[in-house]
Design a protein that fits this description.
The protein is α+β, with helices and mostly antiparallel strands and 340 residues long. It has twelve helices and 13 strands. It has two domains: 93 residues, Malate/L-lactate/L-sulpholactate dehydrogenase, four-helix barrel (Hypothetical Oxidoreductase Yiak, Chain: A, domain 1, Orthogonal Bundle), CATH 1.10.1530.10; 166 residues, Malate/L-lactate/L-sulpholactate dehydrogenase, NADPH binding domain (Ribosomal Protein S8, Chain: A, domain 1), CATH 3.30.1370.
Amino acid sequence: MSGSTGDTVTLTIDEVDALTQAVLVASNTSEANARSVTRSVVASELDGIHSHGLARLPTYCEHAKCGKIDGQATPTVEQVAPAALRADARDGFAHPAIDLGFAELTTLAKSTGIAGLAVTNSYNCGVLGYHVEALANAGFVALGYTNAPASIAPAGGKKAVFGTNPVACAAPDGKGGAAFVIDQSSSVIARSEVMVHAVSGEPIPEGWALDADGQPTTDPTAAMKGTMVPAGGYKGAGAALMVEMMAAALSGSTLSTNASSFGGNEGGSPRTGQFFIAIDPGPFSAGAYDERMAGLVAAITGQDGARMPGSRRQDARPRIARDGVTFARTLHEKLLGYRA
């Protein structure tokens, strides 16, 4: 262990990796499935997105132990049309099903120019941007959608119908990396951030959520019983609807209104879904993509104070790789308990 000070513990990235793998396997998850999830957790910590890193791990472990997630599930993937794939997570973690699907999606998209992957009977996939960035690193323009248990009301309504339903997009930079990664929820803030505040007891900023009566609240506990504020008002609700169509209806997965919580142990498998589109930019752009993308990036980064989406995450990686991950000692002790 790198070190500890008072109420916090600092682990190296390798230690985060080893701890995550160990607690998942100890919580009735196969080695292969745990490895897939561990890569995502480590990537989240490297990016500084702690709400989807170690903080999420106790819930993963609890759900695998109680059977809400089948940690031993073996996902499948089939080609259902010339440019269409469908992966079945089989009530297991989303990550192994997505990894399996991507192995075929990239090959298919290269041969057809564009291909889609639907993932069904799935679960929380962690940071959606993590997945589309992998496609961009492989040279594809990528779009990703995922639904979640209902937490956003439709425009004019008070009852939640949509999840926070993020959408992500990543573009290759022509050099084996990503020119940008956009990952944004349909709500003002991801619900996981409210969960973090509820655990810590800290109030949330006004404008994040509404209570059960549809009134603004700074109480994270009341927010968890209410709904999330859609980003941009009715525009955010519209975005959530589009994601719901792509991730749930188009993949044949459970609608957000019927999906069990990603937080509690009750309700059985959420069986939510994801949808990914991979596009080979070469044929569509007649070979001009790399030049045009470089020009677009230059037009943005050439302005003082302007930055590309995802640049803060990329900038955080070498720093966190060097300094390690610092988090609450109580969380560390809880995780060690799963490993025992």
